[in-house]
Every structure is written in C-alpha cells, then in structure tokens.
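Hi there, hope your week has been kind to you so far. Thanks so much in advance, here it is:
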Amino acid sequence: MELGYYLYCITSENIADQSEIKGIDSDYRLTGVRHEGLNAIISPISLEKYSEEKIQQRVEDLDWVKDKAKSHMDILLKVMESAQIIPFRFLTIFHKQEDITKFLKSYQEQLLSSLDYLEGKEEWSWKLYCDKKAFVADYVERKGSLTSNDSSPGANYFKRKMMKGRLQQKAEEELHQLIESIYNQLDELSIEHKLNQKLAQEITGHQEEMLLNFSLLVEAEQKERLGAYTKEINETLDRNIHVEFTGPWPAYDYCPDFDQEE
C-alpha cells in the first residue's frame, strides 16, 4: 500500500505521547519530522483512500468533510495542549516524507519567526449576536410612551406613526454606536484582531443575527480582561444581545499562509 503524509502543524518542541494520538486516517498514529529546531506533526495516510481523485469525490459528501475536519481540529487542539503550533490547512498532504523535510528547510526562518511571535499568545473567537427586530421593538416600546393633547384621533395616529419611525431609526443608530464602542474596546484588549466575515444563521445555528465576528490574538492577562468584558456585556446590555467568547483556537489568522509544494 502506498502511503502519503498528512501535515497537521509545525512546532518547535517535542510533543509528549504524540504516538498515542490517532491520525485523520485512524489506521495510523501521529509522528514527527524534525529539522533544526522544527517539528512537523504528521501521520501516515493511505493514498488509496486519500488520493487527489478520491478527495475530490469525497468533498461532495458534507458529512465526511464535517467528520474529517473535526478530526483535524481535534488533533490540533490536542497538540496545542503541550506546545505552540503553526496550524496547516485541512487536507494538507505530502506524497513523500522527505518533501516535508525540504519544506522545513525552505521555510525554516519564517517558521521559527512565526513560532517566536506566537509564543505566549492565543487566538480566541469573539462573536456578537443580536435579535435586531426584537432590539428595535423593545427600544421603541421603552422610548415611545407618547402623550398627546390632540383632539383628533387621526392626527394622533399619524403623530405616533411618525414618532415610531424616528425611534426605529434611533434604535439602529444606538446599535451602530454600540458596535463601534465594542470595536474600539477589543482593539485595546488584544495584540491583534481581525474582523472576519459574518456567518449566516444556517451555519451558526443561532436564531439571532451575527453582527460581529472577531478573531483576537491575546496574551494571558488580556484573555482574563476580555473574559470579564464579555461577562459584563452579557449581564448588563440589552437582553436581545449576547456574546460568545471561545478558545483558544489554532492561530490560523496570525500565521503566514505557506505556499508549500505537496
């Protein structure tokens, strides 16, 4: 059987008990390819099952992709427990182990520099959700207790309708100001931050709309402050707004996208 090699990540340290971790091809376990301070975390895979042709066929199977992508992420998170890593994309496959060594040699300086920069830092996800329709409705209800001396019911009706329109606009403006304030606060509470594409409700599984999707690169002290800030938002802001703060995750957003030859 012809074997290839699946690359998960690169670290500068040995990983304890890596041989006990099953690879994405569960017939094989993790191992490492070392070169001058770098350690590529890999596992053998069957090229019969993971040839380019086979992968092209399987990527149409969303259940297969979901299962294998989860395995990939689980392995990265396990390795992260004992070392800083540079994560690689899902389904990064080399046909020869010596090609991985060549890759390490070619990008040695960039890889070591990235590992040095990431040392002591973590990537966290910070997502803001809001039921905008309910937020606006609650705002109008709170602010819209109108009184009128008009004797004409018709005039009073149109006045209320105009006021409701203004309050709806005010609610949108307040939400925009809140988002701007949060953006500025997250800038202060992170080393780097990236505003990622908002995800559709079909993907998030939330009924509320995603308004912000940040990845944050933080140090330990900042993580604690971010956790406190997130708790404050969830406890004190409008009931129609909530935040998810999760991590740490592999630092994809803060690593170079190495153009490896597989």
Remarks:
- The chain has a mean pLDDT of 85.
- The first strand starts at residue 3 and ends at 11.
- The two ends are 19 Å apart (CA to CA).
- DSSP finds eight helices and nine strands in the chain.
